[in-house]
């Protein structure tokens, strides 16, 4: 029978088989000589943090917060305007394209034009966030109740209808999501330091690569404190003040000559065979075919393998972790410890986790799988655990493993699968950028192309990544619709 339960089982089986196949194909070897010794050195560094060894620490924190707050401000404003036109297919397509490109790749692209400038940091976050905000705000407005608008007096203009009857219904959701995006932007801003921008990630990478783990640990602790304390000092009423302060500290500017911009648009991004006075279309075909065979197909294949393996590991880890914070299991003290663990794991950016794992294990796929699974698994576990608190079980319900397997899990499994499928696109997006760390995903070839000043190749490779992410998003959305799975408005990412 084609029931909801059977569709859930079939979808789970397909994802599990694909994940297991990906694990068999993945390179999960450990290539460092003494990973245990390196791990011990890192652990000792975290036990003995040195908070006074980094020069210009406060400047790095200032740039990290400036890029994040300015990027969210510009991205949310642009996304809101696009959300008003969300019914237009061209707007939805453009939003999908810009948000499918990771902030790190946007940063690498803008570096070619604006250099290591504050404008590069701002645009690297603002452009993809514009697409993300457009999608989320557009869906908020689409799903809002239309009854208040229909109750307005006859002849009310469209502006009044929107401002008084539609926007108030979703305004709180928009504010909540905007606050969440600030936290995400701070993480994104930090890792922009790995491409040379003066954020805290720049000093983190330098310290860890030089083996100065006490310094790196101190920087990481400071970064965690900043993110975890955002809700204490970044109040909505103070947001204009903080934004004004960041504009004074790091105004978005860059020294760009007209010649450099013209060269970028007329030469750098133009495929090499077309830069001649007479375009060589046959050479262009050969150029694209060679790029497809040597970089696009291997990069996309490795990205899919790592992403599917990470998706499987994420699902398993989330199912293991959500009881840690569920009121259906354990005592309040243990739930508090579990909540702290999940907060820590989901606060640390996947990229930073992968970077540390690469230092310990080497640049195989294993660091990427571990980093993605720990970060995303903690997010899904948190959402599932929070959902279990709404369940009303019988007084005589079983305890222990039986409660987990027969009472709780069957009730939350559709939500768990919805969360997991939604995070699939984000896992694939994050998988690509791990190539910057030397893991051979699509991002490895993109980073290499930028390093060799072959911007034309980088753009084609980024385009391949966009198509991959859009395809994964379409499959995920189709599965959720087929299974009638939904997630809360404020749980989107």
How does this model look, in words?
The chain has 493 residues and is mostly helical. It folds into two domains: 8-48 and 297-493, MetI-like fold (Orthogonal Bundle), CATH 1.10.3720.10; 49-261, Orthogonal Bundle (MetI-like fold), CATH 1.10.3720.10. Helix content is 74%, strand content 0%. It is built from 20 helices and no strands. It has helices spanning 4-25, 35-47, 57-83, 89-100, 103-114, 118-143, 147-150, 158-191, 200-209, 213-228, 230-233, 239-249, 258-268, 281-321, 332-347, 350-361, 365-388, 400-433, 442-451, 455-482. Helix 17 (365-388) crosses helix 18 and helix 18 (400-433) packs antiparallel against helix 20 (455-482).
Question: Which secondary structure elements does this structure contain, and how are they paired or packed?
Answer:
Blueprint: H1 4-25, H2 35-47, H3 57-83, H4 89-100, H5 103-114, H6 118-143, H7 147-150, H8 158-191, H9 200-209, H10 213-228, H11 230-233, H12 239-249, H13 258-268, H14 281-321, H15 332-347, H16 350-361, H17 365-388, H18 400-433, H19 442-451, H20 455-482
């Amino acid at each position: 029978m084609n029931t909801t339960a059977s569709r859930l089982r079939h979808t789970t089986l397909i994802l599990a088989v694909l994940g297991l196949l990906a694990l068999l194909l993945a390179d999960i070897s450990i290539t460092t000589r003494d990973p245990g010794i390196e791990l011990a050195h890192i652990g000792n560094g975290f036990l003995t943090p040195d908070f006074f060894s980094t020069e210009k620490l406060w400047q790095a924190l200032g740039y990290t917060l400036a890029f994040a707050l300015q990027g969210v401000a510009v991205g949310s404003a642009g996304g809101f305007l696009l959300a008003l036109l969300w019914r237009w297919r061209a707007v939805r397509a453009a939003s999908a394209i810009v948000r499918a490109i990771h902030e790190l790749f946007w940063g690498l692209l803008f570096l070619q034009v604006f250099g290591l400038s504050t404008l590069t940091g701002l645009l690297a976050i603002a452009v993809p966030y514009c697409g993300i905000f457009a999608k989320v705000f557009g869906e908020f407005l689409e799903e809002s109740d239309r009854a208040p608008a229909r109750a307005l007096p006859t002849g009310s203009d469209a502006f009044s209808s929107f401002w008084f009857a539609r926007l108030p219904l979703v305004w709180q959701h928009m504010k909540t999501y905007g606050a969440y995006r600030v936290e995400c932007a701070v993480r994104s801003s930090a890792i922009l330091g790995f491409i040379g921008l003066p954020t805290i990630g720049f000093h983190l990478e330098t310290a860890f690569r030089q083996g100065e783990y006490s310094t790196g640990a101190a920087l990481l602790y400071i970064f965690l404190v900043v993110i975890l304390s955002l809700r204490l000092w970044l109040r909505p009423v103070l947001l204009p003040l903080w934004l004004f302060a960041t504009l004074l500290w790091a105004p978005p500017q860059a020294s760009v000559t007209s010649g450099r911009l013209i060269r970028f648009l007329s030469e750098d991004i133009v495929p090499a065979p077309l830069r001649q006075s007479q375009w060589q279309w046959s050479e262009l075909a050969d150029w694209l075919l060679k790029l497809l065979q040597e970089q696009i197909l291997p990069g996309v294949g490795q990205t899919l393998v790592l992403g599917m393996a990470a998706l499987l590991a994420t699902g398993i880890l989330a199912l293991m972790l959500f009881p840690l914070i569920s009121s259906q299991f354990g005592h309040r003290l243990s739930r508090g410890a579990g909540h702290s663990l999940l907060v820590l794991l989901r606060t640390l950016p996947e990229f930073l986790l992968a970077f540390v794992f690469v230092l310990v294990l080497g640049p195989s796929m294993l660091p990427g799988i571990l980093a993605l699974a720990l970060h995303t698994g903690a997010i899904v576990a948190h959402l599932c655990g929070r959902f279990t608190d709404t369940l009303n079980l019988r007084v005589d319900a079983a305890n222990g493993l039986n409660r987990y397997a027969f009472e709780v899990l069957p009730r939350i499994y559709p939500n768990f699968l919805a969360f997991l499928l939604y995070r699939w696109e984000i896992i694939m997006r994050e998988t690509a950028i791990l190539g910057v760390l030397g893991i051979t995903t699509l991002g490895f070839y993109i980073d290499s192309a930028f390093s060799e000043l072959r911007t034309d190749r980088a753009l084609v490779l980024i385009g391949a990544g966009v198509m991959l992410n859009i395809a994964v998003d379409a499959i995920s959305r189709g599965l959720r619709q087929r299974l009638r799975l939904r997630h809360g408005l404020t749980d989107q990412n």
